[in-house]
Amino acid sequence: MLKKTTLFKSLIAFFILFVLTPEAMAQKAKDVKVFQINVWQEGTIVPNGFDAIIDEIIDKDADVVVFSEVRNYNNTDFVKRVLESLKEKGEIYHGESSEPSLDVALIAKFPIADQEPMYKTKDTKMGSILKTKINIHNKDFLFYSVHLDYTNYACYLPRGYDGVTWKKLDTPITDANAISMANRKGRRDEAIEDLIKDIDTENKEQFIIVAGDFNEPSHLDWTNETKDLFDHRGAIVPWDCSILLQHAGFKDAFRTKYPNPVTHPGFTFPSANPAMEINKLTWAPTADERDRIDYIYFKPIGSIRLKGIKVVGPEETIVRGAVKAKDSKDRFLVPKKTWPTDHKALLATFTVQ
């Protein structure tokens, strides 16, 4: 009897040491890559831009792709065209055609369980929010693909430009309260409030990701440390959308990995693009207009973890109407060939266990 007990204990010890090692547990974890990209009018602005979008999806090996600036031009179906082009290259993705009221879309390597827009008409001026449910590696994911109101772009005020007309101001506006009041004339904060209310009606066991082009900076970027950088001109601004999502329990994936906005600004707009003339890429040519306005947010739950995130796009940047060499510690995934957009994109990797 004693020998059997000793043998049993030895087997248990072997199981703990060799089967449940961190290395073995890590092998069981599976990655989920989320690629967020503003495709600049479906890639129609950049020569061969649509083909470049397909190249980037394949090159980055994305499991889920969130698109902004979908137009379905000339009665074409952007999602259908993307799926067919990927299939021709041996890549199988799933997606549903976007409705006329939307300028966002989502495709995935996994079947779409359910999808619906939050706003069904364009006259709300709230931007677009598409809600998609997908089961990935036996975990329920809920995605909100967003492209928010582009008007009243108040981050241009301290840079000496009007946020509505994009014309140069006589004097920059640097008062944080005045900037916030101008910003709230847009409908971005209302859209995020609606999104948070919608989330409150959902199953709390889902892993929730909010991704897209917000057309608004983050309060995590306009801080005391950056007030004298990037033409902020002393302004420390509590940008609404990022604060609302933070209060709702969401984490900004980029700032989670790179909390220092000085060393890792993570700018996504405007992006340098060697295929385009500089005057097509900048809206405030005498200013440092760079900001982070594209995001991947997530709500922590269970065993799903953020593994990493990188900026996707050319390393070069645009400052005062000119293309400059990389001037930060940001790590980039550079384009395979042509870069299809005036934004940089994001690729976040989550681990599912």
UniProtKB/TrEMBL annotation:
<protein>
    <submittedName>
        <fullName>Exonuclease III</fullName>
    </submittedName>
</protein>
<dbReference type="InterPro" id="IPR036691">
    <property type="entry name" value="Endo/exonu/phosph_ase_sf"/>
</dbReference>
<dbReference type="Pfam" id="PF03372">
    <property type="entry name" value="Exo_endo_phos"/>
</dbReference>
<feature type="domain" description="Endonuclease/exonuclease/phosphatase">
    <location>
        <begin position="48"/>
        <end position="343"/>
    </location>
</feature>
<keyword id="KW-0378">Hydrolase</keyword>
<keyword id="KW-0540">Nuclease</keyword>
<feature type="signal peptide">
    <location>
        <begin position="1"/>
        <end position="26"/>
    </location>
</feature>
<dbReference type="InterPro" id="IPR005135">
    <property type="entry name" value="Endo/exonuclease/phosphatase"/>
</dbReference>
<dbReference type="GO" id="GO:0004527">
    <property type="term" value="F:exonuclease activity"/>
</dbReference>
<keyword id="KW-0269">Exonuclease</keyword>
<keyword id="KW-0732">Signal</keyword>
